[in-house]
Amino acid sequence: MRNDIASRAWDIALALTSWPSVTGSADEAAVASKLAAYLAHFDAVWTTPIAQDPRRNVFALKRGRSSRTIVLTGHFDVVPVEDYGALKPLAFEAERLLPEIIARLRATGENPLALADFESGDFLPGRGLLDMKAGLAAGIAAMETYAGDLSLLFIGVADEEDRSAGARAVAPLLPEIEQQHGLDIALIINLDAISDQGDGTAGRVVALGSIGKQLLTAFVVGKEAHACYPQDGANAAYLGAELLTEFELAAELAETSGTEIAAPPTALHAKDLKSGYNVTTPAQSWLYWNTLQHRRSAAEVFDIALMLARRAMARAARKVGRDIPVMSYAELAARVPASVIAAKAQELAGRNDLDLPERAKLLTAHVWGLSGLSGPAVVMGFGSIPYPAVTLTDGLLEDAIMAAVAPLGLSRLSYFPGISDMSFFGEASGDLSVAAANTPVWGTSFSMPAPAGYPCINIGPWGRDYHHWLERLHAPFAFEILPRALLAVIEGLSKSG
Length: 497
Known about the structure:
The protein is of the alpha/beta class. Helices cover about 40% and strands about 20% of the residues. A hairpin with a 7-residue loop joins strand 20 and strand 21 (about 470-475). Helix 1 (about 5-15) crosses helix 5, helix 5 packs across helix 16 and helix 8 (about 235-245) packs across helix 9 (about 300-320).
């Protein structure tokens, strides 16, 4: 039997999940007005725009007797639903989807763990229920239940699954919102989900920080040759392969904090730039890697990347019989008038058919063509929005938070292991100047606010296989424990303040 707050969290979660909100869709753009209406019972509700974007962010304030404020926040967008196949029409209807998924798993025999989870009665399916509408629901239910002195501010943001446009728009507004509403933000609680393939121990956590992310890129220029005389040139596809070998799971870029490991880099894209078949070796190729950080700055990541690239090209040089210099994008760009680069960058910023790495590739190729340089060479840079690593720095606040949740069985995690909007709300380490200088589309295709710098943690639901048709939420924790944990933190900070 669910208690009142658990029943309320359940109802809210299923209601929010029933609203389709795939990132970038008209449905996502429509959510802000729906959510604002849904939260109309709070003291103040409003939405704010995202520049050059039809989507909006949603705010709801429950005013307490104190100006001291805790923010509860999370994203309302979800990834697409095509992976559900024939079950796609039910992807947003958790309770109707459940028996259909069970029937499918029984019939096919695929994924015995998922079948056991669903048959246990403890897990619910549904696109976005785990990631992360159950977290939003727990925050709203806790906010409705709380009757103490603190003020509570709920913020629902768009677009976390793509470019975090919502959080990037909200972060610089927070000081103004504090001033306008007489608030003093003491803590931001992100409500995002954690994956746990075991018994839930790794999911029942308070994350006191969040990993950072950089997308490293390599623009590789070879020297064309006829395939019958490959020694006359330097194949850009081969040079790229040496980079792939060097960077894949490179220990030098796998950062460790105690027992927590930021996953080593892995290639997300590797392709030569030939447009069709011929017997000429590829002249150029383009590669990029996902890299994760705990404390390392963009400068440190880039220095390691340049070292790895030079090591790979030294190996390649022995085979192709010629030197292959490695340079940064900033060094390349210094050879071309800034106004020329800016004009091309602005043109690419209007290409909504291109993602950020593709724009970075085209701009790098354009600058290379104007540089007067000839290959072979490798140009290293960054290709997308950086996510700064953040961590809680107030030891007393950490102690108060952990003391509040300990009776509910939650443990401490230093870094939320997934990329999250915490990067824009929390206390970031290191500056981003090196990233800015080496990201071709910085300032045109996207803008980066300074991290808001508030104490920021994550307490959210856990489950398995998010971004997959078997995405499933551990319901007992999400509805019975999570809202109570949020209340415990809120009440604990009220007493400690």
